[in-house]
């Protein structure tokens, strides 16, 4: 059993970023925690990319990836929302604990992913890194985006987000995966168009584009699925 492979080391980097992010949230360093999550997102993409490039595949790598993602894209985003709710004027205050519904939904989604044979080349339900990516933008939006930041920081908006995205994580919604077995245009036309759209949206709207990108991702996946079924 090969434990110490390059993809596994990259995955462990993802996990360490999640742990550091948790410490930063507890110290109310929200933007630094978000930066850790964004670094982890890059590592989460790289571990699979490197594994396919080197043709290294193992069951332990698959399990390790999910365990790391539970921490980085399950617990850490939930803790960010929990602390934002704790710092708000939310009444009754115990509603702040609803943030951890998202951590539970993320763990359930990742456990299901590991045994669901339908998800080898695509996803059923929103991937946890996509949810983490949205939450990672919240501290920046709150600090730098005026009215939009006020909307994001509204405790009822945050609670609504938790419930909606907890549902999306485990919904029976087919979503395409940004996995490249080959890099030709014909095989990956939709993926390249989506990635180009992401770049253009980020250039135009900076971090405010991220929630919009996830919305487009879900809608585009539904359109592809509907077209495939016809």
From TrEMBL:
It is an enzyme of class 2 (transferase). It catalyses: a CDP-1,2-diacyl-sn-glycerol + L-serine = a 1,2-diacyl-sn-glycero-3-phospho-L-serine + CMP + H(+). It is found in: Endomembrane system. Keywords: Lipid biosynthesis, Lipid metabolism, Membrane, Phospholipid biosynthesis, Phospholipid metabolism, Transferase, Transmembrane, Transmembrane helix. The chain crosses the membrane at residues 9-27, 123-142, 154-171, 192-220. Its EC number is 2.7.8.8. Its main location: membrane. It holds the Pfam family CDP-OH_P_transf. Gene3D superfamilies: 1.20.120.1760. PROSITE patterns: CDP_ALCOHOL_P_TRANSF, PROKAR_LIPOPROTEIN. GO terms for molecular function: CDP-diacylglycerol-serine O-phosphatidyltransferase activity. This is CDP-diacylglycerol--serine O-phosphatidyltransferase. It comes from Lacihabitans soyangensis. The lineage of its organism: Bacteria, Pseudomonadati, Bacteroidota, Cytophagia, Cytophagales. The gene is pssA.
């Amino acid at each position: 059993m090969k434990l110490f492979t390059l993809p596994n080391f990259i995955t462990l980097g993802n996990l360490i970023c999640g742990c550091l992010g948790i410490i930063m949230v507890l110290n109310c360093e929200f933007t630094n925690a978000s930066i850790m999550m964004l670094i982890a997102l890059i590592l989460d993409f790289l571990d699979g990319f490197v594994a396919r490039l080197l043709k290294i595949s193992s069951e332990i790598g698959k399990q390790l990836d999910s365990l790391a993602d539970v921490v980085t894209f399950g617990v850490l985003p939930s803790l960010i929302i929990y602390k934002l709710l704790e710092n708000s004027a939310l009444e009754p205050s115990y509603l702040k604990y609803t943030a951890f519904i998202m951590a539970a939904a993320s763990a359930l989604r990742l456990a299901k992913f590991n045994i669901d044979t339908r998800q080898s080349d695509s996803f059923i339900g929103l991937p946890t890194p996509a949810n983490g990516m949205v939450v990672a933008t919240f501290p920046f939006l709150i600090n730098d985006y005026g009215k939009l930041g006020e909307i994001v920081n509204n405790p009822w908006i945050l609670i609504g987000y938790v419930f909606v995205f907890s549902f999306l994580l485990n919904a029976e919604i087919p979503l395409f995966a940004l996995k490249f077995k080959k890099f030709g245009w014909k095989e990956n036309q939709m993926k390249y168009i989506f990635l180009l759209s992401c770049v253009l949206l980020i250039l135009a709207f900076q971090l405010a584009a991220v929630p919009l990108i996830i919305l487009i991702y879900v809608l585009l996946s539904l359109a592809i699925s509907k077209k495939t079924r016809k």
